[in-house]
Each structure stands twice: as C-alpha cells, then as structure tokens.
Amino acid sequence: MALQSVLNAGEKASLERLVHDHNSKLNQGKIPQQNLGKDDFLKILITQLSYQDPTAPMEDKEFIAQMAQFSTLEQMTGMAGDFARLTEMLTNTEATSALGRSVELNVALPGNEEERVVQGVVRAVTRGASPQVLVNGTYYDWTQVSRVFEE
Fold first, then answer.
1. Which of 61-65, 91-95, 105-109 has the lowest mean pLDDT?
2. Exposed, middle or buried by CB within 10 Å (0-12, 13-18, 19+), for 5?
3. Which of 43, 58, 80, 91 has its CA 20 to 30 A from that of 151?
4. pTM of the prediction?
5. For residue 4, what pLDDT is reported?
6. Confidence class of residue 69 from pLDDT cuts 50, 70 and 90?
7. What is d(CA 31, CA 43) in angstroms, rounded to the nearest whole number?
8. Is 60 left (phi over 0), alpha (psi -120 to 50) or beta?
C-alpha cells in the first residue's frame, strides 16, 4: 500500500511541514544553488557506490564513464578559472595602455537614466578585477570608457 493512501490530508500536510522545517534548519546560512559542482558529483558517486546492490554491482563501464565525466568536469572548472584570470589580465593591460591618452567616458547621472560624456586624459590606473582610470581628478570604472584616442 502506498504511503499516500495511508495518511489523510491533515497528516500529510503536517508531515510536509515537519520536513520543510527540518530542511530549513539544515540549510540555515546556505545559499541554494541551481548547478552541481565537482564536490556534489563526487558525493553522489560515493553514495551510489556505498549503497549499490552487492549481488549486482555497478558495471566497470558505468564506473569508468562516471569517472571520465568527473575528470571532464574538473578540467572545465579549472579552465573557467583560467579564463577569468586571463580576462582580468587583458582588462588590466587594456586600461594601463590608456595611461597618458585621451578618453571619452559615458557616465550615468545620479538618479537619472541619462548619460553624459566626459573627456579627459588618463592620469592614473588602478589594477584588479575592475580597473579604474583617473580622468579630470575623478576615478571612473574602465567599463565606462567608450573611446581612447590621441590628440
């Protein structure tokens, strides 16, 4: 007999509330994620191996295929980190190359959707994930630069 037919609607609602409360306590301070990472994949694989039927263990082919998927996931994760570092390095190089050159920036006006154009010479550049350029005594984000030119 299925569990649904044993519980009445009130008991089922009470059980669902208890499960929800328990899960909420377990997940306090954790941000839910939509994607599984390599650690999640490894946990699933270990759980699968731990609870497999000893009379019908996982086939070698299945295990090798899952390990290959894990290896691919790990390599892709590493490549994503490498691409992020490369992007940061290229952005920093691009911003630094504007040092001493004239730039045109699109600057949003506070409390307004309109933009104004600011022109000036880059006097300093900060480095990091979001480099900034010093133009006319004010630091602007590099993403606001629309044009670099020589006068």
1. 61-65
2. exposed
3. 91
4. 0.54
5. 46
6. confident
7. 18
8. alpha
Q: Which domain holds residue 146?
A: 60-151
What gap in Å lies between CA 70 and CA 46, rounded to an integer?
Answer: 12
Q: How many CB atoms lie within 10 A of CB 135?
A: 23
Domain contains 41: no
Alpha carbon distance 7, 52 (integer Å): 30
Model confidence over 23-67: pLDDT tens digits? 777 777 666 666 766 777 778 878 887 888 777 777 778 778 877
Question: What is the distance between the alpha carbons of residues 81 and 75, in angstroms, rounded to a whole number?
Answer: 10
In a domain, 68, yes or no: yes
Report the Cα 54 to chain-centroid distance in Å: 39
Query: How many domains, the chain?
Result: 1
Please report whether residue 90 resides in a domain: yes
Q: For residue 119, what are the contacts with CB-CB under 8 A and spacing of at least 6?
A: 102, 103, 104, 105
